Here is the input.
Amino acid sequence: MKLFLPVFIVATVAIGRIVAEDCKGCVPLHTTTFDKVISKFKNAVVKFDVAFPYGEKHDEYSKFAEATKDAMDLLVGEVGIKDFGNKDNADLAKRFNVEKSDYPVVLLFTQGQSEPEKLLTAHDNDYTADNLKRLVKSKTGIYIGLPGCIEQLDRLAEEFKNSGENKRHEIIQKAKVFEETLPENVRPAAKVYVKMMEKIFDRGEVFVQTEQSRLEGLLKTKLSDAKKRSMEEKINILHSFTHRDEL
Here is the structure.
């Protein structure tokens, strides 16, 4: 018994550390601290899940937290809910209408909004870190780099979609000049930005919707891994031209 007790304590501490480090970049939120912490941030993404989460969706959320660790205006947190014992945080789930059958649920809290926005639930097929980054980026305006995207061209895309015809022509020329300064391995992505700008300039905003539908349709077909990755990166770039209220 004397030998068992120290081993048990060490094992318990080790397990506690694993749980605490499981979602790097996530802030654990509880009933007593939730409002105090959330109120300090303009935007907060929070996952509501079981007390000791695991599985593919939890792993994807952890990837999202790690990828957004440098976004100072964004809090990434998680609420662990117990439906046994003292039922920790069950009141938070009830308050925000989060059902156990939907775990893990990701909500977006924005200052000035009375209710959070539901981003993902367990029933969504595209419960991935990249999709969550796309959603948060489009709904908050916070810059979050996505695979295939280039920050400077993302910012030009943001300027482009909010400009008139004359200004858009200037931005296209800027994008072309910037493309020439990039290393060869990055230029194909830059060319996609320029091509999309030109298409939107010629066809109008409807191009964004039709192109997104086309690319998503292609993703449902049988593609090589390289081709699939290329399509996904084009969709990421296309989202840079999407107005927030379109998602």
Remarks:
- The two ends are 60 Å apart (CA to CA).
